Amino acid sequence: MKVKVLYLASLREQLGATGEDLDLSPAVSTVAGLRTLLMARGGAWQSALAQGRALRVAVNQEMAQPTTPVKPGDEVAFFPPVTGG
Amino acid sequence: MAVRIQTADFDAGVEIAALRRGNPRIGAVASFIGVCRDANDGDAVSKMTLEHYPGMTEKALEKIVAEARARWEVMDVLVVHRVGELKPTDQIVLVVVAGAHRGEAFAACEFVMDYLKTRAPFWKKEQTPQGARWVEARATDDEAAQRWEPPKSSAA
Question: Measured between CB atoms, does A55 come within 8 Å of chain B?
Answer without folding.
Answer: no
